[in-house]
From TrEMBL:
InterPro entries from the UniProt entry: Hexapep (IPR001451), Trimer_LpxA-like_sf (IPR011004)
Species of origin: Labilibaculum antarcticum
Stored Pfam families: Hexapep
Name of this chain's protein: Serine acetyltransferase
Gene3D superfamilies per record: Hexapeptide repeat proteins (2.160.10.10)
Matches recorded under PANTHER family: SERINE ACETYLTRANSFERASE
Length: 188
């Protein structure tokens, strides 16, 4: 199995070239190593990047979001992104986005901060032309909905199935429909 993946990585050399000329190298690297605290360089970084591009279509979708342009669009024809994971092109996403199999997930926020965790079936969208702002270190769990021109503070946790239509202060844990604060995050 390992040799099949290694052979598949060979075909991702065009992606490595795209990475080499990308303006968002630091963001891509932060996404790649978002679950680890490390500063990898050189050959290992290229190996890890090509490995994720081969084995993880969600990461590939994020990679294409970080590398817009004609060459990226051409590569998408041969190496498609995941069809059920969408990031709006006008969303500003900080580095270190962690994706836990974001099946049927839509990210249409004004801003998503750094080191944000997104689970599956999440909808972050606009209402009346206004889009949400998510702070850094936010966790959004399965089937949560965040809509409208609201702000989710840093270190907030949005519980599974929560429907958030009002601002959430930093360090808050919210659950329910409509979402309500049930606790504060301690020393995250």
């Amino acid at each position: 199995m390992r040799w099949i993946i290694l052979a598949g990585q060979f075909f991702y050399i065009p992606h490595l070239l795209l990475y080499a000329v990308a303006r968002s190298k630091n963001l891509i690297k932060a996404d790649l190593y978002s679950t680890q605290v490390c500063n990898k360089k050189g050959v290992r970084l290229l190996y890890d990047l090509s490995y994720e591009l081969v084995t993880n279509r969600y990461f590939r979708t994020l990679f294409y979001f970080r590398t817009p342009g004609l060459f990226s669009k051409i590569l998408r024809v041969f190496y498609p992104k995941h069809p059920s994971f969408t990031i709006d092109i006008y969303t500003k996403v900080g580095g270190g986005l962690r994706l836990a199999h974001p099946y049927s997930t839509i990210l249409n926020a004004k801003v998503i901060g750094e080191n944000v965790y997104i689970n599956h079936l999440v909808t972050i969208g606009e209402k009346n032309g206004k889009r949400p702002i998510l702070g850094s270190n936010v966790e959004v769990h399965a089937n949560a909905i965040i809509i409208g021109g609201i702000t989710i503070g840093d270190n907030a946790i949005i519980g599974a199935g929560a429907v958030v239509v009002k601002d959430v202060p930093k360090n808050a844990i919210v659950v329910g429909n409509p979402a309500r604060i049930i606790n504060k995050v301690e020393n995250k």
